């Protein structure tokens, strides 16, 4: 009977030792999680005081140290080398310990550096999206959409106003064409009429150029005038100065719209460059934070004291 009682006592003591070990690990996890709520409150490093645990548990493990099972349980509870609970504390506290307040950034890069750069050059925001930064990607997507909306808007406005000034030239200057180069439409607005003599005649300008080029060859002068003077449906003659002035105003408005549409290309290039730079910075930051998660954050150390007790050391960098 005594042997059975002793065996039961040893078995009960071993179970109590294991329960005490579980309680110690639970206490370590609790101490690791508690400082996580303080993350982001300031740039401080906190080192908790060493907690000296008595060499005996409430179940008087020390009095049963002679038992083999109890001694093995005590060795498991109080190892000779310190235990680093950084991994357990990181899992308990969550991703906020390594990444801080950057909720928009993932813990580690999801895409290679070069591939993310290529994505950004093709479509700004795609590189950020491939790295998991959806907030940053949305900003570049919106900017890209506004850029090309700006381009389409002013292209349409430019063409509509171009149709307007061509119609004005046809109705008020007798122009018979609706397709010509920009230099021709510029001459239509600059001179009152294409042929004839006197001020405001474009033919006078053409003949002066011909005399400068062929001063001693009247035949060559006439050939030059015939080749460069608009005639037939390309001839024009404005009925009034006011109508010609309105034509110039509409044409200038059309040209300004086309010029503003060209600015969209510069803005698109700039958006791609900014996205490419942002992608590289984000990738480097994510890589750095991913490595920092292994070295910084909350760290919990456990060690055995010379007198048979145990101690815990809590380190927190934030």
What is the tally of helical segments? 11
Major β-sheet, in short? 4 strands, antiparallel
Q: Please tell me how large the radius of gyration is.
A: 43 Å
Tell me, briefly, the overall form: elongated
Quaternary structure annotation = single chain
The H-and-E topology, N to C, reads as HEHEHHHHHHHHHEE
Helix/strand structural class: alpha+beta
Q: Detail the poorly predicted runs.
A: 1-17, 24-103, 291-301
Q: What is the terminal separation in angstroms?
A: 60 Å
Share of helical residues = 55-70%
How much of the sequence lies in strands comes to 5-15%
Descriptors:
single chain, 318 residues, alpha+beta, disordered N terminus, 6% strand, four-stranded antiparallel β-sheet, 11 helices
Characterize the structure shown.
- By secondary structure, the protein is of the alpha+beta class.
- It is about 60% helix and about 5% strand.
- The chain is built from eleven helices and four strands.
- The protein has helices at about 1-35, 70-75, 85-95, 95-100, 115-120, 125-130, 135-175, 180-190, 200-215, 220-230, 240-295; strands spanning about 45, 85, 300-305, 310-315.
- Strands 1-4-3-2 form a four-stranded antiparallel sheet.
- α1 (about 1-35) packs parallel to α2, α5 packs antiparallel against α11 and α7 (about 135-175) packs antiparallel against α11 (about 240-295).
- The longest helix has about 55 residues, at about 240-295.
- The protein is elongated and about 80 Å long.
């Amino acid at each position: 009977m005594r042997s059975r009682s002793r065996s039961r006592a040893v078995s009960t003591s071993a179970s109590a030792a294991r329960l005490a070990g579980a309680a110690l690990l639970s206490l370590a996890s609790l101490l690791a999680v508690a400082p996580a709520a303080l993350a982001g409150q300031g740039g401080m490093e906190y080192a908790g005081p060493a907690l000296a645990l008595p060499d005996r548990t409430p179940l008087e493990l020390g009095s049963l140290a002679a038992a083999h099972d109890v001694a093995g349980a005590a060795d498991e509870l109080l190892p000779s080398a310190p235990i680093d609970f950084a991994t357990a504390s990181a899992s308990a506290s969550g991703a906020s310990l390594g990444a801080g307040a950057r909720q928009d950034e993932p813990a580690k890069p999801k895409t290679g550096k070069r591939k993310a750069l290529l994505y950004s050059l093709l479509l700004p925001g795609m590189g950020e999206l491939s790295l998991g930064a959806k907030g940053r990607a949305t900003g570049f997507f919106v900017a890209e959409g506004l850029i090309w909306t700006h381009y389409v808007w002013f292209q349409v406005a430019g063409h509509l106003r171009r149709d307007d000034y061509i119609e004005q030239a046809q109705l008020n200057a007798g122009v018979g064409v609706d397709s010509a180069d920009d230099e021709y439409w510029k001459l239509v607005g600059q001179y009152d009429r294409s042929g004839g003599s006197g001020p405001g005649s474009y033919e006078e300008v053409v003949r002066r150029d011909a005399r400068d080029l062929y001063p001693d060859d009247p035949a060559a002068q006439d050939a030059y005038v015939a080749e460069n003077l608009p005639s037939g449906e390309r001839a024009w003659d404005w009925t009034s100065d006011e109508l010609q002035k309105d034509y110039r105003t509409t044409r200038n408005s059309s040209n300004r719209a086309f010029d503003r549409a060209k600015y969209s290309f510069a803005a698109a290039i700039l958006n791609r460059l900014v996205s490419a730079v942002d992608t590289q910075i984000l990738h480097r930051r994510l890589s750095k934070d991913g490595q920092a998660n292994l070295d910084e954050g909350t760290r919990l150390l456990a060690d055995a004291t010379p007198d048979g007790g145990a101690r815990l050391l809590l380190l927190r960098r934030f």
